[in-house]
């Protein structure tokens, strides 16, 4: 019988490894350079997106919405995904995008397609009866859609177009529909499932409205990824509209979460996550101003801070919250505090470095912050491993 908790712990282990690689990248100018920076960066990003979020989010989805325990086919999908992740982890640091890293990356894309099919085919009664599964299906479709980016990258590189705008746009296409499609819809669906499992009355009319607004917001906010090409003004306005719709779509799940029995510290964490979502949405709206988007595109540290805010501050914290809702484990302790401290240190230093030119070595502070993140992640994994599974 397959145990999803093992999959979640494996995902956290990969997240910790990704964080350690991030620590090495931050300390790169301070250490002997035995590796190629870009190769380690590729490893870091792939392990974070696939080893952490894919394994963890898909595990929570499979546990909630499918009859997976005695399924040999799902176990095969899980093992195949882990093999592809390990392959990428062992090939990217030494060769970057080359034969073996491409082979394992392609293997993962194929595995993800089978996962989409398997979840929809093997949905349980909860998925059939609850509206939240509509968000999950959309998340899975966006997961498949995002894979167009990596496939396009291979074609563009084969045609010698690595220096063209299409190379960057393919990367942005993948990242956008990962963050704002697969992950965002997956989180919305799981949050609604917690509310549904508690028997709280959820207005299907309002859920449908959120569902549609979220789709439109995701599509329109994609244009943020082309603003650096200096497009016409209407593209900026579409980006701002997308950000506004994403912001508006947060209101209903926020009201639903408030009806749950939440501890005080739990409420504080969700307020913090909500604040980050607000910053993200307002940022997209602000990019409707062409002059501002041109300036921000030149600030590499701000772009990294924005990506990390999405990935670490929003997606990862929500995943931890959802995971701990399913256990008897005490949600808030030193581990989650250390994780948040590491996140805040790195975010603040990246923002300060992009806006002020103080004569200090930011790499030391960024390395310390990244190390705090890594230690917090491993600590969280240890706590989860020793917790007993409970009910939502």
How many strands? Answer: 0
Q: Give the radius of gyration.
A: 20 Å
Distance between the termini: 21 Å
Indicate the low-confidence ranges by residue numbers.
none
Helix fraction by DSSP (H/I, runs of at least 4):
over 70%
Main sheet overview: none
Q: Number of DSSP helices?
A: 16
The ordered string of helix (H) and strand (E) elements is: HHHHHHHHHHHHHHHH
Task: Determine the mean pLDDT.
Answer: 88
Structure class: mainly alpha
Shape verdict: globular
**Strand fraction band?**
under 5%
Q: How do the helices and strands line up, and which of them pair or pack?
A:
Elements: H1 4-26, H2 37-65, H3 72-95, H4 99-121, H5 125-129, H6 132-146, H7 148-158, H8 165-197, H9 204-221, H10 233-248, H11 251-257, H12 264-286, H13 290-297, H14 300-325, H15 334-355, H16 362-385
Considering the chains and any ligands shown, give keywords for the structure.
single chain; mainly alpha; 16 helices; 78% helix; 392 residues
Structure in words:
By secondary structure, this protein is mostly helical. 78% of the residues lie in helices and 0% in strands. The chain has helices spanning 4-26, 37-65, 72-95, 99-121, 125-129, 132-146, 148-158, 165-197, 204-221, 233-248, 251-257, 264-286, 290-297, 300-325, 334-355, 362-385. Helix 10 (233-248) runs antiparallel to helix 12 and helix 15 packs antiparallel against helix 16 (362-385). It starts with a helix and ends in a 7-residue tail after the last helix.
